[in-house]
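Form 12-C: Joint structure prediction
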Amino acid sequence: MHFDHHVAVPDPAAGPEVYRQHARTWLRANLPGFMRTDSPDWRPATLAESSAWEAAMYQAGLAGMTWPKPYGGHGLTLREHLAVNKEIGALPMPESVSSIGKELAGPIIMAVGTEAQKQAFLPAILAMRQYWCQGFSEPDAGSDLARLRTRAVREGGHWRINGQKIWTSGAAKAHYCLLLTRTGTVADRHRGLLMFAVPMDTPGIRVAPIKSIDGKESFAEVFFDDVVVPDSARLGAPDEGWSAAIRVLSIERATNRMYRPWRFECELRQLIAACKSDARLAPALEDGGVQRRVGELASEIDGLKGLVELTVERMMRGEAIGARGSLTKLYWSECHQAFAGLALSLLSQVGPQSSPLARRARQACTNAYLFARAETIYAGTTEVQLDVIAQRIMNLPKDLT
Amino acid sequence: MSSDALQPEEFAQAAEAAIMDALTRQDVHDMAAVLARAGLCGVMAAEDDGGLGLDLRFALPIVHAAGRLRLPLPLAEQIVAAHALADTPQAAALASGERLAGIAWQGRLPDGWVRLDHGPADWVLAADAEGAALVDAAGSPREVQAALDPDCPQVWLDLRHAPVLARLDTSAWDALQRQARLLLAEFANGAAEGALQAAASYMATRVQFGRPLSAKQAVRHLLARMRLLQEVSSAAIRRAIRPDEYGAPRDPRPALAGAIANAAFVIEKAIHLHGGMGFTWELPLHRALRAVRRLDAAFGGLSRETGRAFIESV
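Section 2 - Result
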């Protein structure tokens, strides 16, 4: 694959619509045909191919939009970020292979890292030279990080780390782990939490892949046995670093992958196009019940677009969005599960005589249906989001005041 | 009036006060007069017709408050009709609250029977061969359907011989329907918000097993879901009001279908959360539910229509 690395990125002063048009033109001209998930020529991209594609997107001004220029970003606002995301969503392209770096590690390093850490990590994340994995969850600490056990003990200018992480996405390919540890004991609960940037080739780290229900080995258990890292690997001070990270995470929950509703719409169109392309599937589109389900999904997608755009508007006005990211997370995850359920049933009769589009859609939608099971679990389960909405948005009392 | 100096949100408080005042009146025309004096009926009507000449964004908080406070009048329809009929005597009569106008969403004038779901109204706008006509419905043959809402019944009207007062051409009728759909979506969303507020505050004070019911996870999670849907409706309506990226008006149907479905869910659950009290006539949540279900009937099959349009667009 070859991408032109000398792209004329428009001046953002020309407005988000000009930037959006640039994104639209560039993405459509450059996305390799085999990466289009709706194409009968689709095949899974290799890590190198995905990496090259994302690096080219970055060069074209379509990644790292809101990161500051000194760290390799484009120094733009959420407005351009949203404009670009609408176009990313409208094109059926693969998900980022570096989302932990771009959406989690990067923003946290930006908030709590030293200048040297920012210089070392941030440009490398955007240029796709470094992949990150997230070491937060543990077997005994899923939603409840107060039960975290992985321990970091200071030994002079170094830290010795022992413990185990689980559900670590992309651990096998990662260069660094954004690792959450504690300096004391479990009795300290939320006190003494400390983050590190741990190189994954440090002796004592063992990665054991976990096979997921979609047949992939995209996440893993990661064991830390007497892993020694220098103090320069520490991200922020104990407690301070983690509380800053929590603030970053609540913003990220509201702003990452803003393309989702536009992508869901694109997937719904892909489903309809696949049905129309096949003589045996097309009659289902005349069915009133199917039309109603499509209409309900279209309404939900519109609502989700509204939530995303409202978040950007509020943030651009300088308003705190607090826990509102929980509304978006809860809504998109259930909306996408509903879509995937409909897609699976509409495409259930696809067989050897079906159209290439229908065959491709069946493959993509079955995979989406299976993967969607994870969407109400990761990044805060549905139950956690409902708790957050009840507690922090609605302030529902648990006791009489 | 210039809209530069005024923000739509500032209208919310004034609208709420006027609607509360109107609700103390028994007669619907007395109610309308109170609303009109506060500028609510004519918020979008031309200044020459006695209106304020403001745009749709200013009508939004008004109909939201009407939904939340369960105003039993077709205020959204009144507002858009007074605007669309500019320069007619009817516009002035609507802006001043002297007459009430509703919209027949089911049926067309030439076909005979049409249905007014969200009344009461003296005058009815209904589709005819080209565009729509505003007719005087007094004296027309009618069948009242009081099963769903005995206080504000749905009415089938035979308007074939009703006096035509004014006409709207196709584009004016389309524009009016678009505005009315958006405002009625916000009316339903306001009704949902009122029900949610009532349920949340009741759950916070109703003690069982030594703690407020809002301490129970099943209750908290249900209230959180209700809040989510109400927020989604609100965001969808605000989005649908704005033109799309190419400056064209957005299709209001997905937002309306979503707002009605979400409001029905929220109000039904609010009734449920009130326990036995929720099933009493005294608690007014059933009035909100009836109003939203009348809108659901008015736009019957809207989700299917939205789905069909989406399928055709691919």
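Section 3 - Comments
The mean pLDDT of chain B is 95. Residues 174-313 of chain B form a domain with the Butyryl-CoA Dehydrogenase, subunit A; domain 3 fold (CATH 1.20.140.10).
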